[in-house]
Design a protein that fits this description.
Blueprint lengths: L12 H7 L2 H9 L2 H32 L1 H23 L1
Helix pairs in contact: 1-3, 2-3, 3-4
Length: 89
């Protein structure tokens, strides 16, 4: 994120996840942008925290569990190799 605009964060999985909530869609249909924000802002913030927590858990597992880390790296290596070989063909 170094040097990136903070506004780039608005087009993220957090943004998309918040849009998937039916209450958010209903609020957009029934309100102007200011009142819509009362529903969207809370849903968006909840998604940001949810994703941050899951990434923290992943980082903990990756750092503390050798078996998990080795398996994760092995699978990533396999995917990268197959993709690069396919792209080169």
């Amino acid at each position: 994120m170094h040097g990136a605009s903070p506004y780039a964060l608005t087009e993220t999985p957090h943004h998309e996840a918040a849009l998937d909530e039916s209450a958010v869609a209903d609020a957009a249909d029934a309100n102007g942008e200011e009142d819509f924000g009362l529903v969207f802002d809370t849903a968006f913030e909840d998604k940001v925290y949810e994703i941050a927590e899951s990434r923290t858990e992943f980082l903990r597992m990756f750092s503390d569990n050798d078996g998990f880390r080795e398996e994760f790296v092995r699978k990533a290596r396999g995917r990268a190799y197959r993709r690069l070989r396919r792209d080169a063909a």
